[in-house]
Amino acid sequence: MSTTAFDSLARQYDSEFTDTAVGRVLRDIVWSAVSDSFGASRKVLELGCGTGEDAVRFARLGIEVTATDVSAEMIRVARQKINRLSGIEPIELHRVPMEDVVASLCGRSFDGVFSNFGAINCVADLPALAASLAGLLVPGAPLVWVIMGRRVPWEWLWYLARADMRKALRRFEKNGVEWRGLKITYPTPAEASAAIGPYFEIRRVSPLGCVLPPSYAAAWLNRSPRTLAALTRLEVLAQRSTALAAWSDHYILQAARLPAGTR
Taking the CB of residue 187, how many other CB atoms lie within 10 A of it? Predict the structure, then answer.
């Protein structure tokens, strides 16, 4: 496998997102959903694990994690992070493209599947991914995917204020956006739900980054804890509205594996 677009981001990813004020808040909101969904899970498959931050949190809960990512550098950083820890469940790391995960794990079975902060947006064929993953999951297994959305008022305002119309409206590109040799697509909540619908029952769709700004526009919140606290309270309240999921930087899609032959 060749060097990927994410290799160059691996070293700075935690400092530029994970450990920032808004990054911590957004991840905590995701984990509120994860805790609700994965409470009974023992073996979880993670797609696009990045630097391993979520894999570590699963492991701290006593869950066995098989974490995958296409980026060799992301896997390397994740392995370094994991090796510094003790007293957690073992974490299995695989460098593999998301489309090849099922083939590489053939014969395995998982109690849930998780993907955070837009890794799913790099998949060219979402229905095909859902169909293949269904074969790895036991009936009732939870799915939690955090997907980048299409309509993001924060993004429009940020880039239009800088006279960058192309970036302001990039998520509306019909065939996706080229980025460092990758094709990034932005399915709406309705489109993502339809893509997985034949194999999964949709349980909940909620907004993420509806009130809080995207990470590239959030550095000022590191210096303004009161504003961060106020926006965080509004962001948490927004979780109650499924409609706002279509107007957020990301949205949280929660579903459960249907029994084979249900649809």
Answer: 21
Phi first, then psi: what are they for 79, rounded to 5°? Answer: -65, -40
CATH number of this structure's domain 7-257, picked from the four choices 3.60.150.10, 3.30.450.20, 3.40.50.150, 3.40.50.300: 3.40.50.150
Q: Which two tokens stand for residue 160?
A: 């239009």
Cβ-in-10-Å burial (0-12, 13-18, 19+) of 101 comes to: buried
Distance separating alpha carbons of residues 5 and 221, to the nearest angstrom: 27
Rounded to whole angstroms, the Cα distance separating 258 from 198 reads 8
Q: Which residues pair with 46 in a beta bridge?
A: 67, 114
Question: pLDDT of 78-130, one tens digit each?
Answer: 999 999 998 888 899 999 999 999 999 988 999 999 999 999 999 999 999 99
